[in-house]
Amino acid sequence: MAGSEPPVLWQFRFSHFNEKARWALDWKGVEHVRRSLVPGLHIPRVMWLTGRKSVPVLVLDGRAITDSTSIIAALEERWPDPPLYPSDPTERRRALALEDHFDEELGPYIRRALFHDLLPHSDAAVGALTMGCGPVFRGVYRSLFPLVRAAMRMDMRIDEASARLGRERTVAALDRVARELQPSGYLVGHRFGVADLTAAALLSPLVFPPEFPYQPDITMPEGITSFRASVAEHPAFRWVENMYRRHRGTSVERAA
């Protein structure tokens, strides 16, 4: 990286898809700068970068890469060691299929389930979404939060029915992890890889392992804590804790 600009990750701190991209960067030891945004106010910046409104976005060699799966693919091509993709073609296909499954069948659903319970509690929600921000900014965001909340509910299609489905799909994902685990303790092959990283990162908002890099100083609403308690003894819940403990590692974020 000498003589070149480090990659820049545009992110939400409190987000599981963003955690997936962060973890890949940290696990590969790719020094990078993080630019943290908050929901709602992020849109102009991200639209300017990509023409879309979603994060994470990784700016690498002047190119803005959207979507956590595409970010990992770019990192794997640029920094192949340590690998996240298995070298065996059959194992690689299985790993990428599991990554896609958890992206599609877990990521949006767990988000709806948890935000449904978090968003009505303005102080907790603002505290989580504005981690790292100063008190003046938090105060302004708090005043705007009714509008942000309505936009988030509309954008993510959050209501009672979608939250109920989200909880069901999250439990199904935990069951899928438990079924897919190999004797090695990993989802594919004998080492940590993209399937493990994806499943663990996308389940992190429910498990909230201590190694998660951004811990909000809030009291989680009862709906979230009761859901968490109901699955805390699930083998896949404990597996997520183990993956974080063994493989989350140290951040290689570079000061801006």
Task: Describe what you observe in this structure.
This protein has 256 residues and is an alpha+beta fold. The chain has two domains: 71 residues, Glutaredoxin; 159 residues, Glutathione S-transferase Yfyf (Class Pi), Chain A, domain 2, CATH 1.20.1050. It has eleven helices and four strands, in the order βαβαββααααααααα. A four-stranded mixed beta sheet has the order 2-1-3-4, with helices on both faces. β1, α1 and β2 form a beta-alpha-beta unit. α8 crosses α11. The longest helix is centred in the middle third of the chain and has 22 residues. The chain is globular. 38% of the residues are buried. The mean pLDDT is 95.
- Number of DSSP strands? 4
SS summary, helix count: 11
Order of strands across the main sheet: 2-1-3-4
Instruction: Please report which band the strand proportion falls in: under 5%, 5-15%, 15-25%, 25-35%, 35-45% or over 45%.
Output: 5-15%
Radius of gyration: 18 Å
On the 0-100 scale, what is the average pLDDT?
95
Helix content: 55-70%
Counted up, domains total 2
According to CATH, what is the class of the largest domain? Mainly Alpha
Helix- and strand-based class? Answer: alpha+beta
CATH topology of the largest domain: Glutathione S-transferase Yfyf (Class Pi), Chain A, domain 2
What is the architecture of the largest domain at the second tier of CATH? Up-down Bundle
The run of helices and strands is EHEHEEHHHHHHHHH
CA-CA gap between termini: 15 Å
Compile the SSE list and pairings:
Layout: E1 8-12, H1 16-28, E2 33-37, H2 43-50, E3 57-60, E4 63-66, H3 68-78, H4 89-105, H5 107-118, H6 122-129, H7 135-156, H8 160-180, H9 194-207, H10 222-231, H11 235-247
Parallel strand pairs: 1-2
Antiparallel strand pairs: 1-3, 3-4
Helix pairs in contact: 1-3, 1-9, 4-9, 5-8, 5-9, 6-7, 8-11, 9-11
